[in-house]
Write a structure and sequence with these properties.
- Two copies of one chain form a homodimer.
- By secondary structure, chain A is α+β, with helices and mostly antiparallel strands.
- The first copy, chain A, has three domains: 108 residues, Malate/L-lactate/L-sulpholactate dehydrogenase, four-helix barrel (Hypothetical Oxidoreductase Yiak, Chain: A, domain 1), CATH 1.10.1530; 182 residues, 2-Layer Sandwich (Ribosomal Protein S8, Chain: A, domain 1); 40 residues, 2-Layer Sandwich (Wheat Germ Agglutinin (Isolectin 2), domain 1).
- The first copy, chain A, contains eleven helices and 13 strands.
- In chain A, α1 packs antiparallel against α2 and α4 runs parallel beside α5.
- Chain A starts with a strand and ends in an 8-residue tail after the last helix.
- At the A-B interface, β4, β9, α7, α8 and α9 of A face β4, β9, α7 and α9 of B.
């Protein structure tokens, strides 16, 4: 957009890391956290990019995110590992969880690591593609707190728990699925609000639990495909939070529940492809499949068909070349947060 | 319905097994196959029940389903196993796959079994709940042949690849999610056709690839939530078929493809809950969560909220008591198929 500030990925990463370091995050963790935020911006997922920084500054300062977590391995046995992340920044906890999963998979071909007590993890496709870059398939789930209706209900009962799956290609970048279990993200509702448009049936309920077409009244997201999305989200609570002995949902939706708290749980799975098939052959088949999808006859009005992750790959190619555009509003909120910390803004252009 | 024939579950299982035995299936495999079909009927999933038998008779006789498969374990290593199912009846192959997964999980806490060359597997929640009954979480995926559009495409490019997840409760029956990656099943389209109703946008395309509201013109199903459903289906092809060195989709959608063949691939995953948390505590938490979901404030017009699988549990309780109703049309098609094989129909009532 015409008023956007353009910043290179490197300058933006450096800036984000300096902010986190100013909030007492270790340089190593700050760099990792900055990397995933700017990865999201590079791929066009701006809702999970640096615009989150002002909120992270706040949650670091009130202790909901622990700047100096003591991440402990509670269990390692065969294919499984359990981490307690001590309310670490989500990307720090989930990157570590995927490393543990990959380590298990190097031994017994599958690794299944539950990370208890993580915090907001951002664009979770990032963790899945860590596995893909290691020649493995990666699966990531996050179980979080109520903000979506259960099918048939009219209150916020479940999170929009996301699922990511990544597999390596040969010449093609990894295919990456990263989907929430809601019909749409709150970001889409906010876009409609900003554009003065109505929203379709099935996106959101108002605060009293009635379906709304007015994005200004939207308070509770609706699940993807009704029962499918809410069941998928609920099963993630069972596979991730309850399995990790850190249940979230039941105690937040029971009558008289105290909605305070901030913790989430995550799951990172790695599958050792070469235990099944040669990695070169696997990559070749994925490439061929992606090519065949790209070449499918298109529906009316569709210019291009994208295999999972290809849309982000295309934005990344453009933004790596031309820089990341930040809306004025985002820039100003970043400047305000950084200013209080005495952190200089990134160079522009 | 008033014209339905009522048959007990036991009589229907016995009948189905006798049909399969008459088609040269071994008594052990026939019994297992009959059990899953009637399980689907008991739970109200009639589309995956005994109405499939006439089609199975046909595919057994033309060799697309192998009545006497030689199922071989191609690999067992750590958490993984690979089966070649030799075009076994799907339920035979997938039950065996889940047994292998459970066996791996007993050793290293996760089992991940790919079953190559299975055939139609029916209601795959059945295999997931085998794990739940063994005190494990179960995940099942099936990768099959094109019948659904890819997001942005206008041809049948992907299957409606289903995903099932089951976890054990304590007093509560297992929670079971069993969902296709399409917006709706073809069964829903056929229901609308029979009822003379239109279908909403987003359900199906006609044969020329245009969205249709006329169920009589519906030829290609549409993916759940657009890109989400088609990406999920595609990733199952990558995780199951390509990983199992038995890719299906690319060679069926490339220009000039030969659409013959029948094979599918499956994945059965078992996770050893007690490696993470006491099984009693796990079951208690699942029960509490299911109770809390049941007690949620309901949307207008909703009489009851169901945790995943509870709707089927309720139908099962009723049908186990009162018998399974079979529409006249189903009964007649069963009688025709059974008659040719010299198999007596089940006792009625």
């Amino acid at each position: 957009m015409s008023g956007d500030i353009i910043v290179t990925a490197e300058a933006l990463k450096d800036f984000a890391a300096r902010v986190f370091i100013a909030c007492d995050v270790s340089p190593e963790h700050a760099k990792l956290w900055a990397d995933i935020l700017v990865w999201a911006n590079l791929r066009g997922v701006d809702s999970h990019g640096v615009l989150r920084i002002p909120r992270y500054i706040q949650t670091l300062s009130n202790g909901n995110i622990n700047a100096r977590p003591n991440i402990t391995v509670e269990r390692r046995a065969g294919a499984i590992a359990v981490l307690d992340c001590d309310n670490a920044p989500g990307p720090v906890g989930m990157s570590r969880a995927m490393e543990e999963a990959i380590s298990c998979a190097q031994q017994v071909h599958v690794g299944w690591c539950i990370a208890r007590n993580v915090t907001h993890s951002g664009a979770i496709g990032y963790f899945a593609q860590i596995a893909a870059k290691a020649g493995m398939a990666g699966i990531v789930m996050i179980a979080s707190r109520p903000m979506m209706a259960y099918h048939g209900g009219r209150t916020a009962a479940l999170s929009t728990n996301p699922l990511a799956i990544a597999v390596p290609g040969g010449d093609h970048p990894p295919l990456v699925l990263d989907m929430a279990s809601s019909a749409v993200s709150m970001g889409k509702v906010l876009e409609a609000r900003d554009a003065g448009q109505t929203i379709p049936d099935g996106w959101a309920l108002d605060a009293s639990g009635h379906m709304t077409n007015d994005p200004n009244d939207a308070a509770i997201l609706m699940p993807l495909g009704g029962a499918k999305g809410s069941s998928l989200s609920l099963m993630m609570e069972c596979l991730v939070s309850i399995m990790g002995a850190n249940p979230l949902i039941e105690q937040l939706i029971r009558p008289g529940a105290d909605p305070s708290g901030f913790r989430q749980n995550g799951l990172a799975v790695a599958i050792d492809i070469k235990a099944f098939i040669g990695l070169d052959e696997y990559g070749q088949q994925v490439d061929d499949l992606a090519d065949a999808i790209k070449a499918l006859p298109r529906a009316d009005g569709v210019d291009e068909i994208y295999a999972p992750g290809e849309r982000g790959d295309a934005v990344l190619a453009e933004r790596a070349q031309n820089g990341i555009p930040l809306p004025q509003g985002t820039w100003e909120r970043l400047a305000e947060g950084a200013g209080k910390l005495g952190v200089a803004m990134p160079a522009v252009g």
